[in-house]
Amino acid sequence: MARSRRDLVWIPTFALLVALAVPWPLWGVDRVVAGLPVWIWWHVAWLGLCAVLFAEFVRSGAWERGMGLRPESSDDRSTGGERDRVVGSERP
Q: Which of its termini does the chain have fewer beta carbons within 10 Å around, N or C?
């Protein structure tokens, strides 16, 4: 399965997220901000960054391509797409 360049960008992006999961620069820092240790704020910011990047990952269609599914075309989005034809996903 050939990968496009735009899909290959996600590999180092997620590798960097994994590396930043541990607050290496704050190792041994006892500073407190707004009543919480600084490393807690590191994780709050890290989780926010993960959420934003994962949302972009899904929006870019890389999720569907990685799972072997065809990403939606703009025509499918306007008419409801294949999601409406899947059993159990009928909308009222």
A: C
Size of the chain in residues: 92
The answer to whether 80 and 73 are in contact (CB under 8 A) is: no
Contact indicator for 38, 32 with CB cutoff of 8 Å:
yes
In terms of DSSP H, where are the helices of the chain? 5-8, 10-19, 38-59, 62-66, 74-79
Residues 6+ apart with CB under 8 A from 7: 62, 65, 66
- Global pTM reads 0.62
Q: Which residue has the tokens 């407190």?
A: 32
CA distance 65 to 3: 9
φ/ψ of 51, rounded to 5, equals: -65, -45
Q: 46-75 pLDDT, tens per residue? A: 999 999 999 999 898 888 887 777 655 544
Axis crossing angle, helix 10-19 with helix 38-59, rounded to the nearest 10: 160
| Interatomic CA distance for residues 38 and 32, integer angstroms | 6
